[in-house]
Automatic annotation (TrEMBL):
Gene3D superfamilies xref list: Homeodomain-like (1.10.10.60)
Originating organism: Paenibacillus borealis
Keywords on record: Coiled coil
Coiled-coil ranges per UniProt: 62-89
Protein name: Transposase
Length: 98
């Protein structure tokens, strides 16, 4: 980062905050990407966030939600398999052979 102090207008700050909220990267990663100190970005988030009570999406949170989704998908697949077995069993036992 350069040693000179940069000045940003409010519109730029608002757009940057919006960009941060839409990303799954950490503020530190985005700070490096945008060449703006992380502390400055945190200050902008505090001032310009549209939903101050809603936490910024973190990469860790996204990974956790993806893990939960995979887990639920596996449970659903297991239940579908069990349902197919039960249907076959009901069919076999409801039609006794003479």
């Amino acid at each position: 980062m350069s040693g000179t102090r940069k000045s940003y207008n409010d519109e730029f700050k608002k757009q940057t905050v919006k960009y941060i909220q839409e990303q799954t990267k950490t503020v530190a990663e985005l700070a490096h990407e945008l060449d703006i100190p992380a502390k400055t970005l945190h200050q902008w988030l505090g001032k310009f966030r549209q939903f101050p009570d809603e936490p910024v999406a973190s990469a860790e949170r996204v990974r956790e939600l993806e893990r939960q989704l995979r887990e639920k998908e596996q449970q659903l697949a297991d239940m579908a398999e069990e349902m197919a077995i039960v249907k076959k069993a009901v069919h076999i036992f409801s039609n006794p052979k003479n």
